[in-house]
Amino acid sequence: MDSDNVIVDDKYNIEAAEILANEAQHLPITEAAPLYEQLLTLFPTAAKYWKQYVEAHMAVNNDDATKQLFSRCLLNCLQIPLWRCYIRFIRKVNEKKGIEGQEETRKAFDFMLSYLGADIASGPVWMEYITFLKTLPAQNTQEESQRMTAVRKVYQKAIITPTHHIEQLWKDYENFENSVSRQLAKGLLSEYQPKYNSARAVYRERKKYVDEIDWNMLAVPPSGSYKEELQWMAWKRLLAFEKGNPQRIDSASSNKRIIFTYEQCLMYLYHYPDIWYDYATWHAKTGSIDAAVKVFQRALKALPDSEMLRYAYAELEESRGAIQSAKKIYESLLGDGVNTTALAHIQFIRFLRRTEGVEAARKYFLDARKSPNCTYHVYVAYAMMAFCLDKDPKVAHNVFEAGLKRFMHEPVYILEYADFLTRLNDDRNIRALFERALSSLPPEESVEVWKRFTHFEQTYGDLASMLKVEQRRKEALSRTGEEGPSALEGSLQDVVSRYTFMDLWPCSSNDLDHLARQEIIQKAQELKLIANRL
Amino acid sequence: MDSDNVIVDDKYNIEAAEILANEAQHLPITEAAPLYEQLLTLFPTAAKYWKQYVEAHMAVNNDDATKQLFSRCLLNCLQIPLWRCYIRFIRKVNEKKGIEGQEETRKAFDFMLSYLGADIASGPVWMEYITFLKTLPAQNTQEESQRMTAVRKVYQKAIITPTHHIEQLWKDYENFENSVSRQLAKGLLSEYQPKYNSARAVYRERKKYVDEIDWNMLAVPPSGSYKEELQWMAWKRLLAFEKGNPQRIDSASSNKRIIFTYEQCLMYLYHYPDIWYDYATWHAKTGSIDAAVKVFQRALKALPDSEMLRYAYAELEESRGAIQSAKKIYESLLGDGVNTTALAHIQFIRFLRRTEGVEAARKYFLDARKSPNCTYHVYVAYAMMAFCLDKDPKVAHNVFEAGLKRFMHEPVYILEYADFLTRLNDDRNIRALFERALSSLPPEESVEVWKRFTHFEQTYGDLASMLKVEQRRKEALSRTGEEGPSALEGSLQDVVSRYTFMDLWPCSSNDLDHLARQEIIQKAQELKLIANRL
């Protein structure tokens, strides 16, 4: 995974992308198209490249290609400039189609505003829409009245939408109503004034959050840079702000705005698994499990290698009782079987145990043992499951014993096995296990095993066996060469460790510091002596 | 203990000591004596103060007081200037006593050299002794011959002793032998030349170690200063050098020199428990358990509060089968019973279990429960002993349950009890214990218990119980105020922790870093928000 990441980082080179985009801009569209496709495969949410691409088609009036491009990008790129380009395109192709064309254009405006009307930068779009509606021809007073009603409706939406242009829109609306009817205006304006005021207040608050966001950022996998973290933080703050429903609107509208914010956020933090996860769990919490599922599916398209997202997704399915769906996700984690990770084996066994029972888990374990990536972890996990869940210490013991044949060289496995035997309170077998392991492990691998053996004798042994194992440990480890000659001698620190219980020490913390410092000095000095001798 | 140390540090004020010593020097002896006594109670191994004290008596010819003082300090202060002062005193009081006085003086020289002859600075003493011997009157040739033999014997010891004056002594010896008999000289000198050469070589090597030592240092408890650590290191190096027997002398002589070095070392590192311990164990290893015991007894006089030295001493006695002696030391650790530490209770119970059996340990535990300092540790220790050593889970369980009535408010006790039940694989009782504890522990005390409960459900529970306990934990801990509002939401990090097994993670280390950093940023931000709100 790590090595993948390095390649990924190379791939998502922002400078190279900018150079490529610049190059494409100066080429004829037929030559530029493959470059844009390359760019947009890497940066599918880069609205600016989509816009550049689509404008290149528009410049040569490739209407079909333009339409196609818009259908590929609009819903994933909730960005005003791109969508205004779309409106321009729709207006152009419908310019000469009379009423039908006007209807198409109106629909396009509605479509855009339904997706982007909430954008803080959507003011000019509202204005353009109103202007467009105002210029529609009216044959008679009825039509004039209808047109006026349509304009009023849009105004009344625009003035309660917190945008950069909200004050301008309010003034325009005042003029509009006054031009229609001075008398009616008074009532309408005083009705809308508080709603407008509230929207303006929210605008001012929201602007602070929005200003923190870099709207030109390309979506690259997190590299840990400070700039990226600032952006992540800015988005989290904006999301938290929106989740608080600052405008006190109805929950459906509020949810729509939260979704809008998540969608915009994911244009930039497309490679951030935590954002996908938060988005999906927000949906699930809001009651829309299906929406959550869809977010997970999109997340896995964006981050196909993210195991944690897969587990999160499987967890959602399992939680809602969709066991078969969950199983499919687990199976996707297993992959082709050859490269299945030990963790995937383990989690699948646990899943089977939970959902299908002991026998299914056992069967899978027996197969998994033969997998090339079956590490000792799988044995430990299965044995502990048998012990803790099936209450079957015998099976657990057999599994550990079978594993020992394969993993005698793994100190961690030895320690896990010893832990298990400790739970059985089976000191005879623990001692035997330590002896078997230490007779085959090389000294440099056995440090932790010796440590545990010592600790074991401090609990289970008498004074003689305690002292003996410590001496043996010193002798064995002195052969690793990492310990100097003094390591062979018993130290006061050993006494302290023998007579310490939990956090009760047979000395003051000053003494402890002193002994610890001395040990460090001693070791440093011995290493120096050894180094000098070399 | 820590607070003791602060007082101690105050008490052992070097500057104040020097001022006091200076003051004493300018007072008549009757007034100075109490000041010296005060000084020497604090610094019983400060040879320079003893010398000053004794010289003050000598100046006014207080011979009896002088003698008394010498008997109090000489053997604890193996320092050349102090002992030369002693020789001066002996010579003075025996000056006019004829042959008897000469014999006394000779004995004093022998006495001094037997203790300090090995000192690198003992050259002048050897010389003075030789001069003294040379000036003894001889009535006849027989006596002259005896005198010559005596001088030769001393020379022959002096020239194989590595001292600063070894070359001068060799030249003197050559002259001496040549003045006795040119013919004999040749044989003797060529016999001694290689021994002298070897001693001179060792002198040069040893000098490097000795030069690192500050022979003016006052013995103060370690405060952790760099200077102190350098001195500690210098002594450890010198001791290691001597233990290597660089002069290849017989082991009795080598041991004598090692003892001499330890004794000198302890004049300066008198408050260093590790030196006392090393000295005692060196004795024990060399086969002299009685000497080791004596060192421990002196160590406990020097550091009466050092529990670890007491345990080390008890361990030595127990190891050699002197159970009654060991028991007495354990009893000294218990003290008056009122202030007995929990650790002392525990170690005594374990000692009784080892040496007198289950019943003695049980009886003591029943009493110890009533002690005012009986903390939960005593219950844990006794329960685990019953479980691990007596294989009696029922007693262990009863002890834990009895302790719960007293220690329900101790999260660590809850965790230990839970650990024990986990070893019994008794999930019903573990769950019940967690619920009981969490219903009474305040949230800010229950962080670790919740953590363990969560981990427990990850092992023993199904998905629903896993998720439920995590949610409950979040809700409970969010009330502590230390966690921000986001803490209530499930995070991707929670998913990671649910699907991690041992060191197998469902994500790359980059992902982990990223998630961890995000959590830190988030928390910092929320704390800032909370702080701003205050």
Automatic annotation (TrEMBL), chains A, B:
Single GO biological process annotation from the record: mRNA 3'-end processing
Keywords: Nucleus, Repeat, TPR repeat
Transmembrane spans: none
Top-level taxon: Eukaryota
Protein name: Suppressor of forked domain-containing protein
Organism: Quercus lobata
Location (main, coarse): nucleus
InterPro entries: HAT, Rna14-like, Suf, TPR-like_helical_dom_sf, TPR_rpt
